[in-house]
Automatic annotation (TrEMBL):
Main location: membrane
Protein name: TVP38/TMEM64 family membrane protein
Pfam families (alphabetical): VTT_dom
Organism (species): Candidatus Gemmiger avicola
Subcellular location: Cell membrane
Origin: domain of life: Bacteria
Transmembrane segments: 32-54, 74-94, 106-131, 219-239
Length: 260
């Protein structure tokens, strides 16, 4: 009788765990749907707000004014965009997409990409070296101990290079905060800049391409890039948890990467 009761209790506990797992999965699915809807609404809202300004860019006279400003600004215009991009990464709370759009509108797809990546690399190098010097204390000061705790597993990951690349590739991860976090691991600054910069290219180039096509009044390209970006964003948000679970798997047995 006792063994039957124990078996029944075990089955009840198993069913309860299965139910809880199902509930958690349902909550995650709902969250993905909500995030997808919010993303679409934000993109639609941004389009409505910017539409009057975008319409002006179809006017050849307006395009000539923009081109004239770029020529007059010369190197100072490039440095201004570079400086704003550096500031965006350092502060870590400013969204980078508007800056990338402007860079694309002013300097074209490839010029904007080059400026944004240079600014990002410069800021990331400074942040990385500061984090390396000051250690975990700077993370707690800037972001709070609880938020930093969510990324503690990164300190002793045995797939550090792959994990870093994936975290900077998929949408929805706090990339600028992660620059501070990876800085307290044993990864070198050169390797980090190489991995994170390559991983950022798809996100940055879609923004600069959109800015470039908006400036030229090329609606076809703008709409295609917009839809592709939105689709990739939804896919990235949907897959983010799976990618993070993969990244969390596997730790160094020697704890070599763990920091105080």
């Amino acid at each position: 009788m006792t063994s039957n009761a124990a078996l029944q209790e075990y089955k009840c506990a198993e069913y309860k765990q299965e139910y809880e797992r199902s509930e958690i999965q349902d909550m995650k699915n709902k969250r993905v749907v909500v995030l997808g809807v919010v993303l679409v609404l934000l993109l639609v809202g941004l389009t409505i707000i910017l539409f009057p300004y975008v319409q002006r860019l179809q006017d050849p006279q307006t395009q000539a004014v923009v081109e004239a400003w770029v020529q007059r600004a010369g190197i100072w215009g490039c440095l201004a965009v570079l400086g704003v991009q550096v500031l965006q990464v350092v502060i870590a709370f400013i969204p980078g997409e508007p800056i990338e759009l402007i860079a694309g509108a002013l300097y074209g797809t490839w010029g904007g990409l080059a400026l944004c990546l240079c600014g990002t690399m410069l800021a990331s190098a400074v942040i990385f070296l500061v984090s390396k010097k000051l250690g975990k204390s700077i993370l707690d000061t800037l972001f709070g101990a609880e938020k930093v705790k969510d990324w503690k597993w990164l300190y002793d990951s045995q797939r550090m290079e792959l994990v870093t690349f994936l975290l900077f590739l998929i949408p929805g991860t706090p990339k600028d905060m992660l620059t501070y976090v990876v800085g307290v691991t044993d990864m070198t600054v050169g390797k980090f800049l190489l991995l994170s910069s390559f991983a950022r290219i798809p996100s940055v180039i879609t923004s600069t391409m959109m800015g470039d096509s908006l400036r030229d009044g090329n609606w076809q390209t703008t709409i295609v890039v917009f839809l592709v970006t939105a689709l990739l964003g939804v896919v990235g948000i949907t897959c983010k948890d799976r990618v993070l679970n993969f990244c969390r798997g596997g730790k160094r047995s020697d704890k070599a990467g763990e920091k105080p």
